[in-house]
Amino acid sequence: MTAAPPTRSPHPSAATEPTASTEPARYVRPYGDTTGDGMVQVSFTLPVPAGPKADGAASQLAKKMGLDPALVVHSHPIGADFTFFVVYGKVGHLVDLDQVRVVEREYPLLTPAEVNATVKRLLRRKLVVVGGCIGTDAHTVGIDAILNIKGFAGEKGLEYYRELRVVNLGAQVSVPDLVRRARAEHADAVLVSQVVTQRDAHILNTQQMSAAFREALGERRPLLVAGGPRFDPMMADELGVDRVFGRGTTPGEVASFLVHALATRRGPTPAART
Amino acid sequence: MNAAPAATRGTTPPPVRATAPARTAPRPSLLGLDPATVATARALAARAAQPVIDLATAHTTVSVERATLRLAGLTGADTTHRAGDVPWVNRVVDTVAEHCGLQHGVSLPVFHALREHDLATLTDLAEATAAGQIRYTLPTGAARRRAERAARTAVARGIRTIDRNRAQRDRLVARLGDPPQRPWIYLIVATGDIDEDVVQAQNAARAGADVIAVIRSTGQSLLDYVPEGATHHGFAGTYATQENFRIMRAALDEVSREVGRYVRLTNYASGLCMPEIAVLAGLQRLDMMLNDSMYGILFRDINPVRTFVDQRFSRQVHARAGIIINTGEDNYLTTDDAVSAAHTVTVSQLLNECFAHEAGLADWQLGLGHAFEINPDLPDSFRLELAHALLARELFPHAPLKWMPPTKHMTGDVFRGYLLNGFFNLAGALTGQGILLVGMMTEAVVTPFLSDRDLALANVRYVLGAAGNLAEDFRPAPDGFIATRARHVLDQAVRLLERIVDDGLLTAIATGTFGLMKRPPDGGKGADGVIAKAEDYLNPAASLLEEHAAREEPRP
C-alpha cells in the first residue's frame, strides 16, 4: 500500500510556497535555496554513448525543456549505448496559481482502515461487492486488479478490506447470472469490467447490464460501477451506471467511492463528510 | 561485487561446488535459539503438513495429467479450435475426462488408444481426438500392461531430457562459474514482449545481475492452459510458454559466456498450470522457479486441494531438474503487518520446507522467502528486520533464502526509497541471505526505467562492496533486542503451529491465518479440476519421480 499519501485531502491547499501564515503569491517559481530562484533538478537517460557529446546533448535537451542555465552535474554510462544524467538548472516559467485547475474527485480517498470503519458505522454489517467480466469478455485482468487481494499499483484489492465481502464471478458472466447472483448475495454494489471493445461491445454490454438491474430490482438495485481501459469516466449516464472508472484506477479509489456513494444514498451522515 | 563485474569475473576461479550453501562453515547460533524449540517447530510443521500430503497423494488434477502428457512428448496446440489455440494436452485430457474419467490417470487410456488406432505419435492422437475419431477406454489385462509399458517409456524419455539439462547446467556452472559473491543478485524484467525481454535481460546481466526473472503476464495464473509459442503482448509481464523459456535461456547462455559466469533464469510455477510449467522449466533448463505451497490459495483464490496436489507434483519435477524454488512468504507481509505477523512467515517457511523435503527437494534448492516490509517509521525498524532475517538464516542454515525488498512502504518518494533499499541491501549482507531481489526506487510508481535499474544495481554493488564480509563481525548481544525479538518470533511460530496441528492446516487457511486471507477448502478456482484417484490410478511420471526422490541423497 502506498503508505503515506492516501489520506491526503482531495483539495490540497495552494500553500506551495513556504511563506508560513501569509497568503501565497499568485505567481510562483520553483524554490531552490532562495525565493524566486527557479531552480529545479531532473534526471534522464539518452540513448547516446557516454562522453562530451552526450553531456552536450543533455545540456541541449535541458535548455529545450526551459532550464537556462542548465548544469549537467553528473553523467555516467549505462552499458555501451546509454548515458544517465542529473541536471540542475533554472527555469524561467511562472506558475499562475489562479490558473490551476485540478480534477475534482467528489469523494475523499480513504485508507482501508477508514473504509472499514465507515462501512461498520454506516451498515453495521459487511458491504457486499459482486464483480465480474460480462459478455464474452475473458479479460479478468481489470476486475482481478481491483478485487483480488494482490491488488494493483501497490494497493491491495477489495478482498483485503475486512468490512467488504467480495464475490468475484470471474470471466464471461451472463447478465441474467450476474443479476441473480447479485440478488442472492444481497449485493450493495456490482462491479463489471470490460476490456474488449470490438464493435463497442463494452458499451452495449454495460447498457444491457444496467437495464437488467433496473428492470429486476428498480430503485432497490445495487450501486452499479463499470470499469475498463477504454471507458470514458464521463459516460456514466449514457451507460446507466453510477460511476465509470478508466485506465489506472486503483482499488482504493473504488473502495472510497463505494462508501461515499452508499453514504450519499442514505442521506448525509457525519461519516460521509470526513 | 566489483565495479567492473565482467572484467574481474572472468578471472575468478569457478567455485568448487556449483550449489554451495550460502555459508561455507556453519557458525554458532548468534540468536541463542534453543535447539529443542527449533526441533519442536519442525516436528509440529511435519504434523501439520501430513494430512495435506495425504490429501495431495490421494488426488490428481487436470494439470498434473496434462504435465504427464507433456513429459511424454505431447506439444503444440489445436489452432483450429473456436476458442483460439487450445493446447493439445488440454484437448486430450478433457476428452479422456469426458469418456472415462481421470480417476485412473490419463496415461492408460491415452497409450491404449495410441496402440489401438495404430497412431505414430501423441500429436497424431491429439489431432484424431479433435476430429472426434477417438473413444477413450480404460484397458485391462494384457492391454493395460502394454499401455503402462508404453507410457512409462514415453515419460522416461521426457525425464531423461530433464536429466540432460541438469547435467548441462552443472557443466556450464563448472566452466563459467557461479557468481563470485553471496547474495546472488536477482533482477526482474517484464516488458510483455519476449524479444524486448531478451535485450533487457542481457543488459541486466552485463550490469551485474546473476539471476533474471521474467515476470508473467497479469492473470496467467488463472488460465487453465499454458499458451503456446513466442509471445509479444502481455499485461505487465510476459506469458510463460515453452518457446519463451527456450528463447530466454538461449539468450542468457550467450551472455553467460560473455560475462564469464552462469546467469540463472527464473519463472513462475504457480497458478492453475503449476505442474505443466514445472515440466516446461525442466525441459528448457530454467534454474529457479517461484513455487509456493500456499500463494495461489491465498492471493489468487485457487482451490486449496488443487494447489497442494499441483504443488507436490511440480516440486517433484523441480527436485529432479535441480531447480531452486523460491517461496512467497514476502506476500504475507504486504497484506498483514510485518511486525505482528512476522511469525506467520516463519510458520510458512517451516511448512514450505516440509512439503519440499517430502517432494524430494534438497536444502540447497529451498529459496525460502522473506521480506523487508516493516514500516520504516517504527522505532528500531531496522533492528526488527535484522532479527527476522537472522532468524530465517539460522532456522534454515543450508537453504539459499530469498530476500525481498520493500514494496509496501515505497511511496513514490524515490529518494527515500533509494535509501530504504540501501538498508535492505545492508540487512541482506549482514545476515547472509542467499538470493537478493534488487529493489527499485520506482516501486509502485512506474515500471523501472533503464536508469532506475542501473541505480539499483549501483546501490547493491556499493553496499555489498562496502560491507564486505561484515556478517563475520556481526554479533548481536546475546540478550539484546535482536536476539530477544528473534526468539520471541520463534515462540509465537511454535504456538501458531500448535494451533494449526489442532485445527488442521486447511482450517487455518480457511480462517485467515496467512496474509489475512480466508480460503475454504472447497472454494476457489480450479476446484473442478481435482479428482480423487481410483485404486488402480497410474501415472508413470509420478512413480518415476518418486523413485528418484527416494534414491537421491541430499547434497552435502
From TrEMBL, chain A:
<protein>
    <submittedName>
        <fullName>Beta-lysine 5,6-aminomutase beta subunit /D-lysine 5,6-aminomutase beta subunit</fullName>
    </submittedName>
</protein>
<dbReference type="GO" id="GO:0046983">
    <property type="term" value="F:protein dimerization activity"/>
</dbReference>
<dbReference type="GO" id="GO:0046872">
    <property type="term" value="F:metal ion binding"/>
</dbReference>
<dbReference type="InterPro" id="IPR028991">
    <property type="entry name" value="KamE_N"/>
</dbReference>
<dbReference type="GO" id="GO:0031419">
    <property type="term" value="F:cobalamin binding"/>
</dbReference>
<dbReference type="InterPro" id="IPR006158">
    <property type="entry name" value="Cobalamin-bd"/>
</dbReference>
<dbReference type="InterPro" id="IPR036843">
    <property type="entry name" value="KamE_N_sf"/>
</dbReference>
<feature type="compositionally biased region" description="Low complexity">
    <location>
        <begin position="10"/>
        <end position="25"/>
    </location>
</feature>
<feature type="domain" description="B12-binding">
    <location>
        <begin position="126"/>
        <end position="269"/>
    </location>
</feature>
<dbReference type="Pfam" id="PF16554">
    <property type="entry name" value="OAM_dimer"/>
</dbReference>
<feature type="region of interest" description="Disordered">
    <location>
        <begin position="1"/>
        <end position="32"/>
    </location>
</feature>
<dbReference type="InterPro" id="IPR036724">
    <property type="entry name" value="Cobalamin-bd_sf"/>
</dbReference>
<dbReference type="Pfam" id="PF02310">
    <property type="entry name" value="B12-binding"/>
</dbReference>
UniProtKB/TrEMBL annotation, chain B:
<feature type="compositionally biased region" description="Low complexity">
    <location>
        <begin position="1"/>
        <end position="28"/>
    </location>
</feature>
<dbReference type="InterPro" id="IPR037086">
    <property type="entry name" value="Lys-AminoMut_asu_sf"/>
</dbReference>
<protein>
    <submittedName>
        <fullName>Beta-lysine 5,6-aminomutase alpha subunit</fullName>
    </submittedName>
</protein>
<dbReference type="GO" id="GO:0031419">
    <property type="term" value="F:cobalamin binding"/>
</dbReference>
<dbReference type="InterPro" id="IPR015130">
    <property type="entry name" value="Lys-AminoMut_A"/>
</dbReference>
<dbReference type="InterPro" id="IPR016176">
    <property type="entry name" value="Cbl-dep_enz_cat"/>
</dbReference>
<feature type="domain" description="D-Lysine 5,6-aminomutase alpha subunit">
    <location>
        <begin position="31"/>
        <end position="543"/>
    </location>
</feature>
<feature type="region of interest" description="Disordered">
    <location>
        <begin position="1"/>
        <end position="31"/>
    </location>
</feature>
<dbReference type="Pfam" id="PF09043">
    <property type="entry name" value="Lys-AminoMut_A"/>
</dbReference>
<dbReference type="GO" id="GO:0003824">
    <property type="term" value="F:catalytic activity"/>
</dbReference>
